[in-house]
Amino acid sequence: MLVGDINKTKNQIEFIKLDNRIFVEKNLDITEINSQEELAQKMNSIVFEPNTENKIILEGKRNFEININNLFKLIQNNQIIKIKNNTKIKYNLEEISKENNLRGIYVKKLLEKINTENYTEEEILKAIEIGLDIL
Question: Which residues, in sequence order, are CB contacts of 107 under 8 Å at separation 6+?
Fold first, then answer.
């Protein structure tokens, strides 16, 4: 008795569409937004096409700290399924590095490490952002 048979022909994989929803990415510039609540209002006011699931990519220079988990709690739009934060801090790092205080020394030392250490510029800027938020 033969339980299974091995098919020696090439197997083909094909996509079978089970749902008519579409995944869409949208960019949102938040430079002019001043709080997380204001950002949530802006995201709630976006009108999406029906049958879409959306990823919002936040861009620009921000004036506040963004907490993605808290932002999802404030959003009432069920079509937003993912949020990615690509924003940058709105500090003038050159001016801060000239200050004669702990904040200025911290920024100056980290800016010096951009070209001399094994860290990328993005990693240094993230460290500056975290440090300035703490200070």
Answer: 93, 96, 97, 128, 131, 132
In which element (H, E) is residue 28 found?
strand 22-29
Helix (H, G, I), strand (E, B) or coil at 70: helix
pLDDT in tens, 62-84: 888 888 999 999 998 888 899 99
pLDDT along the chain (135 residues), means of 10: 56 77 91 90 90 92 86 89 88 85 89 78 82 79
Angle at 23 between CA 18 and CA 29, to 5 degrees: 170
- State the angle between helix axes of 102-112 and 121-134 in degrees (0 to 180), rounded to the nearest 10: 170
Residue type for position 8: K
β-sheet bridge partners, residue 80: 54
Side chain identity at 115, as an amino acid letter? N
Residue 129, helix vs strand vs coil:
helix
Q: Which of 61, 57, 62, 65 is nearest to 85 (CA)?
A: 57
